Amino acid sequence: MIIYKDIIIKANKAVFDKKDNFIECEGDVLVFSGSDRFYAEKARYNLQEEKGIIYNAKFKFGPFYGKSKTIERDGDLFKLENSYVTTCELEEKPHYRFQTGKIEYWQKKEYLRLEKVKIVFEKKFNVFYLPVFSLDLETKKPFFIPSFEYKTR
Questions:
Q1: How far apart are CA 117 and CA 128, in angstroms?
Q2: Upper half-sphere CA count for residue 57 (Cβ side, 13 Å)
Q3: Distance between CA 120 and CA 112 in Å, rounded?
Q4: How many CA atoms, within 13 angstroms, populate the side-chain half-sphere of residue 82?
Q5: Alpha carbon 47 to its chain's center
Q6: Radius of gyration of the chain (CA)
Q7: C-alpha distances in angstroms, 95 versus 98, 121, 149?
Q8: What is the pLDDT of residues 8-65, one digit of tens each?
Q9: How would you classify residue 20: left for phi > 0, otherwise alpha for psi between -120 and 50, otherwise beta?
């Protein structure tokens, strides 16, 4: 277990380079950063610069759960690539998800920005696409609020 400032890292294997303040972790990696959690196969992190990358991760931040191919951290900013987010607690098969090419999450500002968004229900139905979706997690107000309707014949 590695504890540094507000970060706690657990892993099956961790190598620390004291000279460069660099940690490389593998196998069942668990990272706590404030109230946010990340589970991954592998992680690399520079403690001094507060920069790092997590590979093949599941995460929980704020009310959101999700998965990401990579999560890069640079101070307060987390950049997620090839990801999805949801508020559904079902880890493997969420009822719905926001599938996205890119997510930017500012941890201290509590702000979330998604790009190339596809809203998917039950892994089967692509509901609609958005080029960008932003949400202030503190006020819980999005840039716009979509409303859903349906008609029966």
A1: 8
A2: 31
A3: 19
A4: 6
A5: 20
A6: 17
A7: 11, 6, 18
A8: 999 999 999 988 888 999 999 999 988 889 999 999 999 889 899 999 999 998 778 9
A9: alpha
